[in-house]
Amino acid sequence: MSDLAARRVRPAEAPAEPWHDNYLTAEQGILSWLTTTDHKRIALLYMASLLAFFIIGGFAAVMMRLELFTPAQDVMTADAYNRMFTLHGTVMVWFFLVPSIPNTLGNFLLPLMIGARDLAFPRVNLASWYLFNGAGLLLLLSLLLGGVDTGWTFYTPFSTMFSNGYVLLAALAVVLVGFSSIMTGLNFIATVHLLRAPGMYWFRLPLLVWAIYATSIVIVLATPVLTASLLLIVAERGFGLPVFDPAHGGDPLLFQHLFWFYSHPAVYIMILPSFGVISEIVTCFARRRIFGYTFMIYAILWIAVIGFLVWGHHMFVSGQSLFASLVFSFLSFVIAVPSAIKVFNWSFTLYRGQITFEAPMLYALGFIGLFTLGGLTGLFLASVPIDIHVTDTYFVVAHFHFIMVGGAVTALYGGLSFWWPKITGRLYPEGWARFAAVLMFFGFIFTFFPMFIMGYAGMPRRYGAYPPEFQIWHVMSSSGAVLLAAAYLLPMGYLTLSLFRGARATDDPWAATGLEWRTSSPPPRHNFRRMPVVDEGPYLYHPESEGPHHTEREPHENQGRGA
Amino acid sequence: MNSGGEALREPWESLRRQREAAGFGMWLFLNSEALLFGALIAAFFATRFYHPQAFEAAGKEAEIVYGTVNTLVLLTSSLTMAVASFATRAELRRVSFWSLGLTLALGLVFLGLKIMEWRSDLEKGMVPGPGFPMEQPGAVLFWGFYWALTPLHALHLIGGLSTVGFLTWQAARGARPLRSPAFEAAGLYWHLIDVVWIFLYPLIYLQGRASS
Questions:
Q1: How far A25 CA lies from chain B's nearest CA (Å)?
Q2: How far apart are CA A522 and CA A528, in angstroms?
Q3: pLDDT of A261-286, one tens digit each?
Q4: Residue A1: its pLDDT value, please?
Q5: In 3D, which of A419, A428, A413, A430 has the Cα closest to residue A508?
Q6: Nearest-Cα residue of chain A relative to residue B33
Q7: What is the CA radius of gyration of chain A?
Q8: In the CATH scheme, what is the code of domain A36-561?
Q9: For B12-36+63-206, CATH number?
Q10: Which residues in chain B have their CB less than 8 angstroms from residue A193's CB?
Q11: Complex ipTM value
């Protein structure tokens, strides 16, 4: 190591004393878990459910990549392929990505970060988990009966008149999981409004709290519109009530408008929480204040608001008026600005920081790169002429996977590593974790970058067979998917192992400033032994307007006292 | 733990704060419900925009007597529910149970009239599908929305009835103190059912009759 590099944040290991009282040991037995109202335990329950759905959705992805290895339709029938990508989309969007960070990390951390004992409505929180699982079982039932072939978008009139899958069951499952997200969302909003610690003013909240707060607002306002559009599908398909049926003068595009009014904001539901996670990690491992704290907040809110006004960019080729398309195109460029502000601010936070490359930081840096690529290609798609050229090609598939998988899933793994010591009281193996983080980055690029190229060359999405000239790109992509799968499975292995073998974590292994580190690891049942009081903003890693520039670690200031 | 007694729940430190939370949480949920019905009503409007004459003709077939009486019934039930919210908070036992009982009764009357109205619609054959009596293209879409919106509204009313009924039963058993914030939250939800109906009433019963 040269003199310029700062000393690593070597997490201190705590002596192996008997655990003091914590939320994991407070009550024993499976029943105490199934009836718990502790937000930390519910976060773990959600983690278990989400892991199951991640594996199911991942399985469908593996089957698709297997089919696409050769140009011919040889592994499964075209119909089975349709059901595979529908399964992949439905499970991954509603049963993994939407709840991923908010319901696991958010559920665990939100009360800790604002200095509260629990969420505002603990029993609603538990109920939302049961509803989530109920909806998941319905979806699995539709899968076991034979699946759905509409794609995750349920477009009419195919879904209402022609599809012969179990559309009703799947739509009902999505309606129910929507209620589960609304319950979680309103719980988070009420918690942030009503349960902040003394002195924790709005502009002292950590950015993860802001991100989850904005996400929750979008969830509460957008999800019911999805419910409405799916209920109309149920009415038309199940009860024969014509609503979208063009034979009776109905308008199938009306469904698309309603659907995307939810589903575009849903993209921000999936990505906003990861912005929060990245802000926490980048500041901690660069030992810097966040650059432009208030602007980060305005950017989050800006995205949340404008996110409601851009749905028409999914419908450029639907025959909507050119004037509408141009307005939606303009607004889609407008929403790129706050995302760019966030990327610039993370970069400036790194500038002159004492950067160390622990695993969470590797994930975070990977996130910034992949999110930037995904965001910039989003601008291609926001331009009407280019979008018309690449509509329904792999270019679109690559674009949203860069945001959803390269962005949101990378941030989830980063956040999981970062807060693992707090959640479990154990340290994960650093070497393995760094390897997994780097492997995830390369596996991801290897899988999805070829899709940009073949998409631009005209490879359409949602086909199991394709012309042979695209094979080279598909082979690359399928090979990359193997690496990516390994990078996703690896942490499941070493994190599980660390539960038994991992070194004991101290209360604050990363020397971070947030309130969640001011309590023991793992935290006690009621989060804090003495409730914290706050008199500073977040991220006081170094004196204001002055960057650290030597090898000695700057002293940092914690956000709370008295805990 | 002293001021609230048994009405106080985790993680709140005072009943005043908990009451604020119950109301605030319910308002958030109402926002969500407003967008659910808002989307459906917007879809109704968008479709009506394509077929204004057909929608007017179809709207004339809606049973305005049932609709109007039901509007009055539901508005009155909102009044009794509002009384119940304040009476429970002030722990006026007699007034609370009377107003809660009246609210439940009026809600049931609404449902009963609704069922009679549906039966009369069915007798006239106003069901999309083979044998639908109206010729105009688009008229069947009005009835499509009718059969989607009114049962969904009724479903919400059943939700409201079950909630208020359950809370009243708990209070009567002594399992729930009258000053529990749940009564006010249930009241807010009840008013939403009313407000939604105030939008549905002109859309279904009046829009066809206004212009002629």
A1: 20
A2: 11
A3: 999 999 999 999 999 999 999 999 99
A4: 40
A5: A419
A6: A224
A7: 23
A8: 1.20.210.10
A9: 1.20.120.80
A10: 24
A11: 0.93
Q: Give residue A328's pLDDT.
A: 96
Average pLDDT over residues B35-53: 94
Kindly list the domain boundaries of chain A, sorted by start residue.
36-561
CB-based contact, B135 to chain A, within 8 Å: no
Give the Cα separation of A281 and A395 in Å (integer). 30
How close, in Å, is residue B68 to chain A by CA atoms?
25
User: What is the secondary structure of A420-448 as a DSSP string?
Assistant: HHHHHSB---HHHHHHHHHHHHHHHHHHH
User: How many Cβ atoms are within 10 Å of A486's Cβ, its own excluded?
Assistant: 13
Q: Which residues of chain A lie closer than 8 angstroms to B138, CB-CB?
A: 248-249
- Residue A163 tokens read as 């599809």
As beta bridge partners, residue A13 has A505
- Nearest Cα neighbor of A216 from B32, B21, B33, B20 is B32
Percent of chain B clearing pLDDT 90 (strictly above): 83
Q: How far is CA B197 from CA A454, A458, B55, in A?
A: 52, 50, 19
Hey, where are the domains in chain B?
12-36+63-206
d(CA A118, CA A543): 32
Q: Token pair for residue A195?
A: 């349960």
Query: In whole angstroms, what is the distance from residue A189 CA to residue A194 CA?
Result: 9
Contact A459, A393 (CB under 8 A): yes
List the beta bridge partners of residue A533.
Answer: A561
